[in-house]
Amino acid sequence: MARHLVTSALPYINGVKHLGNLVGSMLPADIYARYLRLAGHEVLYICATDEHGTPAELAALEAGLDVEEYCRWQHQRQAEIYQGLLLSFDYFGRSSSDENRQLTTHFARRLEEEGYIEERETKQVYSAADGRFLPDRYVIGTCPYCGYGAARGDQCESCTRLLDPTDLIDPRSAISGSTDLEVLQTRHLFLLQSRLAEEIRTWIDSQEDWPTLVTSIAYKWLDEGIEDRCITRDLRWGFPVDRPGFEGKVYYVWFDAPIEYIGATREWANQDPDHCDWRSWWFDADDVRYTQFMAKDNVPFHTINFPATLIGSREPWKLVNHLKGFNWLNYYGGKFSTSRGVGVFMDDALELLPADYWRWYLIANAPESADTTFTWELFASAVNSDLADTLGNFVNRTLTFTARRFGSTVPGGGAPTEVEERLAADLARGIDCYTHHLERLEFRKASLQLREIWTLGNSYLEQAPPWLTIREDRDRAACTLRAALNLIRIYAVLAAPIIPATSERMLAAFGLPPAGSWISPDVASELQALAPGHEFTVPDVLFRKITGEDITAWSERFGGAPLATQH
Predict the structure, then answer these.
(1) For domain 115-196+203-233, which CATH number applies: 3.30.230.40, 2.40.30.60, 2.170.220.10, 3.40.50.1000?
(2) What would the pLDDT profile of 45-58 be if each residue is shown by its tens digit?
(3) 258-284, pLDDT tens digit by residue?
(4) CB count in 10 Å sphere of residue 145
(5) Which of 274, 316, 357, 537 lies in the 20 to 30 Å Cα band around 232?
(6) What is the rounded distance in angstroms from the CA atom of residue 75 to the CA atom of residue 49?
């Protein structure tokens, strides 16, 4: 079996993230990693908090904490939330780690040795009102390329073009709003990635199965011309630049953050060497298939900037094999907003309902081909129809009826007929299709296929309803229920990547441990895996339905409103 390295975009340290961050990187990466493990592959799923930069300093100041203390607190807070959302990271690191500092310094040195680092005089914005230099993202203005009025000084969220603060039209401070800005001279280090443009293009040309969303963004940057990138800043919080004359400067957060994918793996190995040999995953790792997951605004950094760092080092570091990009999840047609109290954030989500409700809805509506919108009405419809009525109803009525009429063991009697043969054939086709979509990272299609597999069970029970056949042919009813009980076990395995807690509850009803392997191609045998006499229990209802009162209360709390009322 192959070795699979999986990473999702690093969540920034300044506070709890919203549902869009979850579905745009961490959740699909987790589902893929869980599937790969069940399929028998060796998997390493790595993530970390992104901790450097001025936003962390300002958030710490607002919280009344030292920035290092603030980052430790927020890392723990985020880790607990991700654990609550059942994200199966092998390791969740920190970009401020000593391992990442060493690696960042190493890459800077290697890039300079290879002629890709240059000192340059540059201009930086100083705000008299704030009494400080303003990092790129704390200068806001109009994008000179697309006219977007709230572009940041590092990147325009609208057209994704990389910017410098001095590029902006009518710039202002994001902290105070002041337009009293002064441009001062300073010296910084630049990564000469323009010299690597053709190598990067050749590398991207070789990626035949990348999503159009990803390649279109990458080629847009390449076609417009890759500019050299400043990789240092006049800040206190970050990795110091070990260079005469650069005292008081640190490496730019977007230089050290992607290196943390490697850094986190090294952190894990250093904490417990038995876990893994970190170099075997990242250095001369031709036997590793590396898959990244991220939202579209992160794509440029992972198709251009980070590859430039790796390629320019002239060392055999692992480049990504497949990059899965996502569009944005909006909230009632607009953006999530912490300051305005609009939208659902991950801690709020877990307060309302267990993780599987959110995991199912988000991945079944993942913004793969276009932006999607979260509404409470759509959320309730998916939960009630897919989880409660389709899966939950099948599990509950099968177990309840069997226990009432045959006792709490799998019933014996009867022999499979053409009905069971058709069920096995339909199920085999459905599983093949579902597996294909998971392997191709087609998450909405995979979710739709899984739901269709669930409907097979309800259709099967309707063809020869055991609550009717038991009156005249008890053996026939027993055979039907035995197949249905085995369907529950099969459904639990298939659902394990997406709704793992529910999967465990379904398997626990039969005294079975969490799923450890994928369903075999011999579906007919899988339908007989639970033999007559195997004990089971009837669990509580798997999913509660979401009511109209819930929708009203949650809409009021989180700022939602029916789309028809939006203006």
Answers:
(1) 2.170.220.10
(2) 999 999 998 889 88
(3) 999 999 999 999 988 777 799 999 999
(4) 15
(5) 316
(6) 6
